[in-house]
Each structure stands twice: as C-alpha cells, then as structure tokens.
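User: I'll paste a sequence; please echo it back and then give the predicted structure.

Assistant: Echoing your sequence first, then the prediction.
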Amino acid sequence: MEQEAFCRVSRLEGLLSFAVNRAEARGAGIVPALDEDRKKWIVREIETWRRGKLLPEQYCDFLQNLYLDDLTDRPKGPLGEAVRRVGRASGKQWALTIVIFSLICLIVLHFSAFPLALQIALGVLGTAGFVGWGARRRERQPARGLALTGAGMLFQFGIGLAVLGIHGWTSGAGPVALVALSSLLWICCGLALRFSLLHGLGWIGIIGLYAWMLSRQVPDPSWLEVQVFWVPAALLFGWLSWFVHVKFKATGTVLFANALILWFMPEIYSALFDVDRAWIQLELLVKIAAVGYGLFRLRKQWMEWVA
C-alpha cells in the first residue's frame, strides 16, 4: 500500500510539473505538440485523481482544460460513455438499430408460428452470430468477447427450451437431447476459444446427464457399484489432465477440476438417490483425507500443470 501511494504521488508530481510547463508555454503562445495516446492517458489519469479525491475539483478542471478543447469530452463512467456514443451515432446507425430491434421483436412474437426447421435455423444463426462476434472481440477486448460467447451459449439453451415447450417435448428424451447437445457445444466452444469456464460447464453437464442415466438404468445399485461407476472416471480425467497439460495448460486445469468432482460424485450420487446414506459422511471424510494426502505428496507435479 505504501509503495502504491508513493508511485501515485510521484506520478502526480511529475504530471503537475508537466502541466505547469505546458500552461506557461500556452501563455507564451507556444503549445508543444502532444502525442494523442499520451494525451488520452493524461486525461484518464486526471479523472482517476478526481474520483479518488487526490486533487480538488477545480484543479482537475484546470488540468484537463490544458489537454481538452471542451471539458464535456472528459472520460465518463460506462453509462456516460454509452450515452455519449449514442449521441454521436449517425442517422444510418439509428435506422439500422431500429430495423434490427423491430426484426427481433417480430421474431420473438411469431416464433411459435414458425416451422420447426426455421426455429432451429434461427437458433443456429443467433448462436453462431454471438460466438463469432465474441471470437472477433476476444483478442482486443477479452472480457467483452467472453461475455458475448457466454450470451451465445445462453441463447442456444434458451432457444432449445422454447422449441421443446412449443412442440410438447418437455418430457421424455427432449430435455436429455438438449442437455447433451448443449454440453457438447459448450465443450467444443470452450476448447476452440480457450474459454475454460465454458469448457468446464460442458463437462459438468455431461456428468449430470451420466448420473441421470445411471439412475434410470440401475435403480438400486450397491455401494461397490456406485464407486465403480465414478471412481475410474475420476482417475481417467486425472490422467488426461496430466497428459494434455504440456500443450494445453488451461484444458489440463479444467480436466483436473472435473477429476476432483468425479472423485466425490459417488457420495453426491448416493445422497441424491438414497444409496447407503448412513455411511456417506464417513466416506466423505475418508476421501477428503485421501485426496488431501495425495495432493500434498504430489503437489510439485499437479501444481505445475494446473497453475
């Protein structure tokens, strides 16, 4: 904290000295040229001081007046910046926005009347649009790119639920197919776009679907069967995590996290489907102790491919 405060004070002193020299030059009628990027950085820095109360309001106005022709051009918050961009939009941009918004409203209002093929096509096009837009934004604006990609996945899942509801497929194989398709899409997009959270959610969806299928196919399993259903999968994911971490470290981290989930899935499954619930707490304690001991002894190995 002290070092950060010292850096801020040093920057403040340097910029104030620079501002004084610039003000003297302006008073003498000689205004030195200033790089546009440097000017933007200085204006943002002054705005930071204004919000942090490091300088009085009138001093900040004075300093920004040295670098801005109009004080209304000074940086604003996210909402203010959005309003300013709307105000600067051209007539064509306004017209295009109105047309797109009207088209979206028409599609939403008449979606249930469309044929099934058109409903699916709209879902695919919408999802592809979000994902493609997010992929383009990913390099320059990572947070916005990831948000657009996540919005695309939510859009796809929402369209799927709407199609199931419209056609009366909410029971039976319809929801299962939707979860399976969504999970596979999330895994593929997470791998292609290096979006670890989306990749992990896809595997969690697959794990949930596997648990549901086990409950339908094996309604009354024994304790040993439950362990056999899940523990080998946990070991497999752990080995895959080690295998792929050299070239794909983020993928290795996701697989390692899912290996830990699968390690405790027998107890979660037993609690959900009432399988030998009397021993669940003891099993959890034993497994926590075992995985904790293993992680401690092998910490140099697994931290290397997860960190």
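The chain is about 80% helix and 0% strand. The chain has a mean pLDDT of 76.
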